[in-house]
Design a protein that fits this description.
3-stranded mixed β-sheet, 17 helices, alpha/beta, single chain
């Protein structure tokens, strides 16, 4: 038997790099990484080397500070003696950090810069290698500034800067503006990608998990942008793109954030699938439900963990007791707790009653105008939920001001009634000055605090948007949303057993009223 031949040739690694961004005049425009590897292998064979490993990287040529993990591994292998040499197609493919990187190898390890005909171990090439490296760095810095200036200009102009378009959106190649994608989510489906993206973004803002959204997409047979299954991580990163709100974004190295120009203003890039107000309202709702709200709710709201939508605001017309949810229906308290019998104990199917009240809430809220009394009440209660400390302090200041007004009014009334006639006249002046001082001080305090204004974004949403937000909201948030607009629900007993539920005939909804402050 013949002994296998051992290859005693020194080893060499190949480093092939190609930029994703290339200018029209770049001489490497057509040199692919495959072509570089091919030329590297030819050089190795011609010069008596055996290729140990091929290092291939793709990355931007205009950012000298960009992290290059592949390059770092190739350098580590060379400097640790794992390979005898490193082949690079051209010096500016090696590094654009100038002398910083080439000084690590000059006279210490062999790097072949094929196109430039330079060798880091050749004493005669030292000066030229350093000069070429510094020129490459200078070019990279200039290119980086040009690209940055162009991108800033494009961002400020509201243009989509490139890259893959977020699922559910389209980009006009001429205007570079985004718009909802009207492609069906699946063949023959009535729902479009834009509509599904809208539902997902609102659901995410309301706190629905990425896993739940991915599971729903996979269940419905909707392929991911790459034509495969959805997973929660990539989906969450996708749905957090400001592009869905029609806003310009920028990547901070970890995630995409909303971009603001020099004036601090957001920049529109077209029509998204949701508005910033809708997303803000949804996120505020989630935050609101994770805070301690019990002490700030209006009378009639409890701070417990109720498991049913209408608990604590439903009442039996027959006896005036609370109608609680038991089994599959809301029933009169007398049925559950006993005691004084009810002349007309109510029982209403849970699903039918909750559906009726929800429908009424959606219809009324979606039709509100900003000047409507109910809209003002909803905004007031939303502020109390979202800024409890501020609203409590403001309410206390308003109460003090009203007391000062009342004290001054009583003083004027007493004078008209003659209580300050005769010798008592001397007491009136100081008393009036004291009352006026108190009035001015309390008014100044009210003006200082001002009513906190937190506009609930759902008040400006259209019917479809409001329904989408409601469908995506968890039960605690739905309970709070109802109670922003509804104070009480009175339920009447059905005309006979088995009668089909008629909400209009059996339910009276008492819509929210202002707190009675007529100032």
């Amino acid at each position: 038997m013949s002994t296998p031949e051992i290859d005693t040739r020194p080893t060499i690694d190949l480093l092939a790099r190609k930029s994703k961004i290339l200018t029209k005049g770049d001489r490497l425009r057509e040199v692919s990484t495959d072509e570089q590897i091919k030329q590297g292998r030819k050089w190795a064979a011609d010069n008596g080397y055996r290729v140990r490993f091929e290092w291939v990287e793709l990355g931007s040529a205009y950012n000298p500070a960009r992290e290059r993990k592949t390059f770092d591994k190739a350098m580590k292998a060379l400097l640790n003696g794992e390979t005898s040499a490193l082949w690079v197609y051209m010096l500016d493919r090696f590094s654009r950090k100038g002398a910083e990187d080439v000084l690590k190898v000059i006279g210490k390890a062999r790097v072949i810069f094929d196109y430039d005909r330079l060798d880091s171990m050749d004493e005669r090439d030292r000066g030229r290698i350093i000069d070429e490296a510094e020129r490459a760095r200078a070019y990279s810095v200039r290119l980086s500034h040009r690209v940055k200036d162009v991108k800033t200009s494009q961002r400020d102009a509201g243009e989509w800067l490139g890259g893959s378009t977020p699922w559910g959106l389209n980009v006009d190649p001429k205007t570079r503006k985004v718009s909802p994608d009207d492609t069906p989510v699946t063949l023959g489906a009535t729902e479009t990608r834009g509509q599904r993206a809208r539902r997902m973004v609102l659901a995410l803002a309301f706190g629905v998990s990425g896993k739940a959204l991915a599971t729903e997409l996979n269940r419905d047979g909707i392929p991911s942008p790459r034509g495969s299954f959805w997973s929660s991580g990539p989906l969450l990163r996708l749905l957090q793109s400001p592009a869905y709100m029609g806003l310009q974004g920028f990547h901070n190295g970890k995630r995409t954030l909303v971009y603001r120009n020099e004036k601090g203003e957001t920049v529109s890039i077209g029509e998204g699938v949701v508005t910033p107000e809708e997303v803000e309202a949804a996120r505020y709702g989630v935050a609101m439900n994770h805070s301690t709200l019990g002490a700030t709710r209006h009378p009639g709201w409890n701070g417990g963990n109720a498991r049913h939508l209408l608990s604590d605001i439903s009442w039996c017309v027959g006896c005036g007791r609370a109608a609680s949810c038991k089994g599959d229906g809301y029933v009169c308290g007398s049925t559950i707790n006993g005691g004084r019998p009810c002349p007309a104990p109510v029982r209403a199917n849970t699903k039918a009653l909750e559906s009726y009240v929800t429908g009424a809430w959606l219809a009324v809220v979606s039709a509100l105008e900003p000047t409507d009394e109910l809209a003002a009440t909803i905004a007031e209660r939303w502020a109390a939920l979202s800024s409890p400390e501020e609203t409590e302090e403001y309410a206390a200041a308003k109460a003090a001001h009203k007391r000062a007004q009342a004290a001054l009014a009583r003083l004027e009334g007493d004078r008209r009634a003659g209580y300050y006639d005769g010798p008592a006249e001397a007491l009136y002046g100081p008393a009036r000055r004291e009352a006026l001082t108190a009035l001015m001080e309390t008014q100044a305090r009210v003006d200082e605090l001002v009513t906190p204004t937190v506009h609930p974004g759902f008040l400006s949403a259209d019917d479809d948007a409001l329904r989408a937000m409601w469908d995506a909201a968890p039960l605690p948030l739905r309970r709070d949303l109802l109670r922003l607009a509804i104070d009480r629900i009175d339920i009447r007993k059905a005309g006979y057993q088995g009668q089909r539920f008629d909400g209009d005939a059996r339910v009276t909804i008492t819509w929210a009223k202002p707190n009675g402050d007529d100032d």
